[in-house]
Write a structure and sequence with these properties.
Oligomer: heterodimer
Number of domains of chain B: 1
Distance between the termini of chain A: 113 Å
Strand order of the largest sheet of chain B: 1-5-6-3-2-4
CATH architecture of the largest domain in chain A: 2-Layer Sandwich
Number of strands of chain A: 12
CATH topology of chain B: Chemotaxis protein chec
Number of helices of chain B: 6
Low-confidence stretches of chain B: none
Strand content of chain B: 25-35%
Largest sheet of chain B: 6 strands, antiparallel
Helix content of chain B: 40-55%
Order of helices and strands of chain B: HEHEEHHEHEEH
CATH architecture of chain B: 3-Layer(aba) Sandwich
CATH superfamily of the largest domain in chain A: Histidine kinase-like ATPase, C-terminal domain
Structural class of chain A: alpha+beta
Chain lengths: 394, 207
């Protein structure tokens, strides 16, 4: 073999072996010598199976026969056969992959077999990495799915518990309200009978306490209805001016009874609108009675401003200001939540369940509005908000 | 081009070789492999030939082809084609890999496996032709390509005025069957020699 081709063959990154018809090794390039840790001087003239025992197998014997007798070339992949010759420096043989070409070559009168061996272990390694990645991704997906299901289960349980609580409250309130009405009715009848001063006083206390308790129960019933999604809104035509006038005269009287001033201002309020008058009355009453309840000195005011949104709707804004005890900044967040008063000492002093504002908030929201609270310059509170109402164009 | 009798004779002759390829494949993958050739056609391929007629409908899409060139005096090219979406299944069947961590993309290892499987089948087909025309052929190393048929037909048939031997091929490993086709491109001289030899076989058989 001439020197240049010898040099080239020894530089290629591929293993080359040539054997004759008796499978005697006639050539082995340097790459393969280094790769398999063998020396050509010791191996030339030996039989192929000495360094590649795989050729003992009948499958490869058939390939050899096909090559010599039929001239057939054959490609053998590492994907199927793994490897053909053992590399001397590989610690883990399982990760070795090789491809091999078997090709008959004619040289003079002789036919030889050319074997080319290429190491493809890195290809195999890449695929293993890819498989590991996929397995890891699938594992994470399974964990995520499991925790998602767990979350859903917990949420369902919490919802069911909340629903049960609301239903319980609704049923209990209803059951208590019926005998409460009887107690109040009986107290009314008792007042009409001849009583001495002491007895009259006792009946008055009985009636006052019963009415208070009834109010509390009604509040609970309202909240539970709202939470159960059973709050019904009735849209009817009504006289808004009349409703406001009634509220103003009632609460002016209430304020004056307590020695407070009641201020009222309104602008642009239409006479007839369409909406739920009961809800509007309940919301504003709640806010005004709260304002009067928590104010010892000074005044309580109500301001109403109506703005036309379009031909069909108006935005009814309201401000209820007082000069009472006010609400601490850190409590403002929770004030519209059920059963939350600014602190428990307030409850002891002023009474009430802390349901009023929660009901107001839900009523206002049911009418497409919002309600917020802010401090009245350190002298009480301002509740401001709006609701949406339909206008009647007659 | 071929009458029924000639077709049967060629099919029978090729079946012996394809049977040997199957047993070689069985030994290689250590599984029961059955190869059959349910149909053979010879087509005179000229300009304007309807390519849709040429390619079976299940191969009118992305395909993976393994091809070898053969011969000097009697020359041609043989190509084994499988639908691309079946390749992963075919390789998996042969290697017996579990599909728990399935890599859906075709990898170089998959192409190598298909190149070897194609090599065995194509050697058998070309070997049977060589045996029939009594010529010792030389075989090139197989090449693997992904093609879109029939648009890429020009990569399969590079010359006009050739004859195509289209062999339907059914590949069964264990109980699963995958269909493919083998297209052998032959010159006019080669095909007439082949037909002459088929007739000689028929004379030997039936007198």
């Amino acid at each position: 073999m001439d020197k240049l081709s010898d040099l080239v063959l020894n530089r290629t990154n591929i293993g080359i072996i040539v054997v004759d018809r008796e499978l005697k090794i006639v050539y082995l390039n340097k790459w393969l010598q280094d790769y398999a840790g063998i020396n050509a001087d010791n191996i030339i003239g030996q039989i192929l199976t000495d360094i590649m025992p795989i050729f003992h197998k009948s499958y490869y014997q058939q390939l050899v026969a096909n090559a010599f007798f039929k001239g057939q070339s054959m490609f053998c992949s590492g994907a199927i056969h793994t490897s053909f010759i053992i590399p001397h420096n590989h610690l883990v043989e399982a990760t070795v992959r090789q491809n091999m070409f078997i090709e008959p070559i004619q040289f003079g009168q002789e036919t030889y077999l050319l074997l080319q061996i290429k190491d493809t272990s890195s290809q195999h390694k890449q695929i293993q990495l890819l498989k590991n990645e996929i397995a890891e991704r699938k594992r994470i997906e399974a964990v995520l799915r499991a925790s998602e299901e767990e979350m859903k289960e917990l949420r369902d349980k919490a919802l069911a518990a909340s629903k049960a609580k609301t239903e319980f409250l609704a049923i209990m309130s209803h059951e208590i309200r019926t005998p409460m009405n009887a107690i109040i009715g009986m107290a009314d009848l008792l007042v009409e009978t001849p009583l001495d001063t002491e007895q009259s006083e006792y009946v008055e206390i009985l009636k006052y306490s019963s009415l208070n308790l009834l109010q509390t129960i009604n509040d609970i019933l309202d909240v539970s209805k709202i939470e159960a999604g059973k709050l019904e809104t009735n849209k009817l035509k009504f006289n808004l001016q009349l409703l406001l006038d009634e509220l103003v005269s009632f609460y002016t009287f209430q304020a004056e009874q307590k020695g407070l001033q009641f201020l009222y201002k309104q602008a642009n309020v239409p006479v007839v609108v369409e909406g739920d008058s009961v809800h509007i009355k309940q919301a504003i009453s709640n806010l005004l009675s709260n304002a009067i309840k928590f104010t010892e000195h000074g005044h309580v005011s109500l301001e109403i401003l109506s703005t036309e949104l379009d031909n069909q709707r108006i935005k009814l804004e309201f401000w209820i200001k007082d000069t009472g005890i006010g609400v601490a900044k850190d409590k403002m967040q929770d004030i519209f939540e059920p059963f939350s008063q600014a602190d428990s000492s307030t409850t002891r002093k002023f009474g009430g369940t802390g349901l009023g504002l929660a009901i107001v908030k839900r009523l206002v929201e049911s009418m497409g509005g919002i309600i917020t609270i802010e401090n009245n310059d350190g002298h009480g509170s301002i509740f401001k908000g709006y609701i949406l109402l339909d206008v009647i164009n007659e | 081009m071929l009458n029924e009798q000639q077709k049967d004779a060629l099919r029978e002759h090729m079946s012996i070789y394809i049977g040997q390829a199957a047993s070689l494949l069985s030994e290689m993958v250590d599984k029961r492999v059955i190869l059959t050739i349910p149909d053979i056609q010879i087509i005179d391929y000229k300009i304007g030939f309807n390519q849709l007629e040429l390619i079976p409908s299940f191969l009118q899409s992305f395909v993976v082809s393994s091809s070898i060139a053969f011969g000097e005096t009697f020359s041609g090219e043989a190509r084994l084609i499988f639908p691309k979406e079946k390749i992963k299944e075919l390789v998996k069947l042969c290697l017996g890999e579990d599909d728990a961590q399935e890599v859906t993309k075709l990898t170089d290892m998959d192409f190598d496996a298909i190149r070897e499987i194609g090599n065995i089948i194509l050697n058998a087909i070309v070997g049977s032709i060589g045996n029939l025309v009594e010529v010792r052929l030389e075989y090139s190393i197989p090449e693997v390509n992904v093609l879109y048929l029939p648009d890429d037909i020009n990569q399969v048939i590079i010359k006009n005025d050739v004859y195509l031997l289209i062999i339907r091929n059914s590949f069964t490993v264990d109980e699963t069957n995958i269909d493919g086709a083998i297209i052998v491109v032959l010159s006019m001289e080669a095909i007439s020699e082949l037909v002459t030899k088929i007739d000689e076989v028929l004379v030997d058989l039936y007198g």
